Automatic annotation (TrEMBL):
<dbReference type="InterPro" id="IPR036890">
    <property type="entry name" value="HATPase_C_sf"/>
</dbReference>
<keyword id="KW-0812">Transmembrane</keyword>
<keyword id="KW-0902">Two-component regulatory system</keyword>
<keyword id="KW-1133">Transmembrane helix</keyword>
<keyword id="KW-0418">Kinase</keyword>
<feature type="transmembrane region" description="Helical">
    <location>
        <begin position="117"/>
        <end position="137"/>
    </location>
</feature>
<dbReference type="GO" id="GO:0016301">
    <property type="term" value="F:kinase activity"/>
</dbReference>
<protein>
    <recommendedName>
        <fullName>histidine kinase</fullName>
        <ecNumber>2.7.13.3</ecNumber>
    </recommendedName>
</protein>
<keyword id="KW-0547">Nucleotide-binding</keyword>
<feature type="transmembrane region" description="Helical">
    <location>
        <begin position="51"/>
        <end position="72"/>
    </location>
</feature>
<feature type="transmembrane region" description="Helical">
    <location>
        <begin position="157"/>
        <end position="178"/>
    </location>
</feature>
<keyword id="KW-0597">Phosphoprotein</keyword>
<keyword id="KW-0808">Transferase</keyword>
<keyword id="KW-0067">ATP-binding</keyword>
<feature type="transmembrane region" description="Helical">
    <location>
        <begin position="23"/>
        <end position="44"/>
    </location>
</feature>
<feature type="domain" description="Signal transduction histidine kinase subgroup 3 dimerisation and phosphoacceptor">
    <location>
        <begin position="217"/>
        <end position="282"/>
    </location>
</feature>
<keyword id="KW-0472">Membrane</keyword>
Length: 425
C-alpha cells in the first residue's frame, strides 16, 4: 500500500502495478491474447501440420503462455514484443502484437531508446508483411474458383503492405503520443510542485521579513522610549535630590528646582505622546524629530539641573536628514544622561562640529569628584542603542574612558546624509 501522488489517500499497489485497475486491465488483455494465441496454435498444429491431439494441446498451452506475457508489459515491455514476433509467422497472435507494440512505444523513453523501438517495430512490420503475403500467395489461396480471374499481383502486394502497416503503425504511433503526453503531464506536475514549494518558501521568507520588520520597529520604539524617559527622568531625579538638600536653607531655589522638575516632566510626557501618536498614524504620517537645532536647549536643561556643561559649535552649519539629526541629538542626550548618572558634579563638554566628511558630536566629562555621583538606575542599553543607530546610518561611534579619567561619547555621521541647499537643475 502506498500514498497516491495527488495526496488523496492510499492506493493499493500489486507488484509493479501502481493501481489495481491497471493490474485488472493487463490480466484482461493477457487473457484475450492468450485465448487468441491458444486457438491459433491449436488450429495450426491440427489443421495445417496434422499432428496428434497431444501436440495440439501443447501448442494451445504455449499460445496461452505467450499471451500471458502481456502481464509483464509494464515492467519489461520488450518481452511480449519478442514473443509476438515468434508467433506472428504462424498467422496468429495479432492481439499480442498490437498491444505489445503499443506498450513498447508508450513505456520506453523516447528518444533515449528509440533505436530499440524502431528496430522491433520494423521487424514486426516485415513479419506481418511476410505473413500476409504468404497467406495471399499460398497454393490454396491462389487457386481462383472456376470462371473467375485472380486479382493482379500488385493488388495483393498493396493489400499486404496496407495490412502490415495497419498492424504496426497505429499502435506504435499512438503509444508514442500517449507516452509523450504522459511525460508532459508529469513534467507539468513536477513544475507545479516546484512552483508550489517556491511559493511556500517565498511565503515563509515574507513572514520572516515581516517578523524582522516588527522586531526592528519594536527595537526602534524601545530606543525612542529609552532616550526620552532616561534623560528626562534622570534630570527629574537630579532636581529632586537638589530640592531635598536645599529645601530648608534655600526655599526659593528649591521652588525653582521643583518648577524645573515640572517642566522636564511635561516635556517627557509630550515626547511620549508624540511617540505613541506615531504608532497610531498611517504610514504617510511624518514623525516629529528632534534635531541639532535643539542642542542648546538640551544643554540648558542640564545646566539647570546643576551640571557644569559647555557647548561648542564649530564649522559652517548645514542641515542634515531628519533621521541623521535625530540620531546626533540622541547621542548628545545619552551622553548627558550618562554624565548625570555616573559623573555628577564633573565638568562636561559638548562638541558639535560640522566637518568636511559629515557632522561630529561628542560629549566628554571629567573625572567625577568623590561623593558626587548620583545613584541612578541604568539598564546598560543606552550606549548599545546609540551604536546601532549610528552604524545603521553608515557612521562611526565610540564610547569609553579617556586618558584623564573621564568618559567620552562620540559619533560621526557621513556627509552623504547632508541636505543640498542648491539642488542640481
Amino acid at each position: 500500500m502506498s500514498e497516491s501522488p495527488e495526496g488523496g489517500g492510499p492506493t493499493h499497489s500489486v507488484w509493479w502495478w501502481e493501481r489495481r485497475r491497471s493490474a485488472l486491465l493487463d490480466v484482461s488483455l493477457a487473457g484475450l491474447a492468450g485465448l487468441e494465441c491458444a486457438a491459433g496454435a491449436y488450429a495450426m498444429v491440427g489443421d495445417r501440420l496434422h499432428w496428434a491431439f497431444p501436440a495440439q494441446v501443447a501448442a494451445a498451452v504455449l499460445g496461452a503462455l505467450a499471451g500471458a506475457t502481456l502481464l509483464v508489459r509494464r515492467r519489461w515491455p520488450a518481452v511480449p514484443v519478442v514473443v509476438a514476433l515468434v508467433f506472428v509467422p504462424g498467422l496468429f497472435g495479432v492481439v499480442l502484437l498490437v498491444v505489445s507494440l503499443y506498450s513498447l512505444a508508450v513505456t520506453w523513453k523516447w528518444p533515449s531508446r528509440r533505436r530499440r523501438v524502431v528496430w522491433l517495430s520494423l521487424v514486426a512490420f516485415v513479419e506481418s508483411l511476410g505473413m500476409v503475403l504468404f497467406s495471399f500467395f499460398s497454393p490454396t489461396s491462389t487457386q481462383a474458383p472456376p470462371g473467375e480471374t485472380p486479382p493482379p499481383t500488385w493488388v495483393l502486394v498493396m493489400m499486404a503492405v496496407l495490412v502490415a502497416v495497419g498492424l504496426t503503425a497505429p499502435p506504435v504511433v499512438s503509444g508514442l503520443y500517449m507516452g509523450a503526453r504522459r511525460r508532459l503531464i508529469e513534467s507539468l506536475q513536477d513544475r507545479a510542485h516546484g512552483l508550489e514549494a517556491e511559493l511556500g518558501l517565498l511565503a515563509e521568507q515574507a513572514q520572516e521579513r515581516a517578523r524582522r520588520a516588527r522586531l526592528e520597529e519594536r527595537t526602534r520604539i524601545a530606543r525612542e522610549m529609552h532616550d526620552v524617559v532616561a534623560h528626562r527622568v534622570s534630570l527629574m531625579v537630579v532636581h529632586a535630590g537638589a530640592v531635598e538638600r536645599i529645601l530648608d536653607r534655600d526655599p526659593e531655589k528649591a521652588r525653582q528646582s521643583a518648577k524645573l522638575m515640572g517642566e522636564v516632566g511635561r516635556q517627557a510626557l509630550n515626547e511620549l505622546r508624540e511617540i505613541l501618536g506615531v504608532l497610531r498614524m498611517s504610514e504617510e504620517a511624518v514623525e516629529p524629530t528632534a534635531g541639532l537645532g535643539e542642542l542648546p536647549g538640551l544643554v540648558e536643561q542640564s545646566e539647570a539641573a546643576g551640571m557644569r556643561v559647555q557647548l561648542t559649535v564649530t564649522g559652517p552649519s548645514r542641515p542634515f536628514a531628519a533621521e541623521a539629526e535625530q540620531t546626533a541629538y540622541r547621542v548628545v542626550q545619552e551622553g548627558l544622561t550618562n554624565a548625570h548618572k555616573h559623573a555628577g558634579g564633573a565638568r562636561v563638554r559638548v562638541v558639535l562640529a560640522y566637518v568636511p566628511n559629515g557632522v561630529r558630536v561628542a560629549v566628554a566629562n571629567d573625572r567625577p569628584g568623590p561623593g558626587t555621583v548620583v545613584a541612578l538606575p541604568s539598564g546598560g542599553n543606552g550606549l548599545l542603542g546609540m551604536r546601532e543607530r549610528v552604524l545603521a546610518l553608515g557612521g562611526t561611534f565610540s564610547a569609553g574612558p579617556d586618558q584623564r579619567g573621564g568618559f567620552r561619547v562620540e559619533a560621526v555621521l557621513p556627509s552623504r546624509l547632508a541636505l543640498r541647499g542648491d539642488p542640481l537643475r
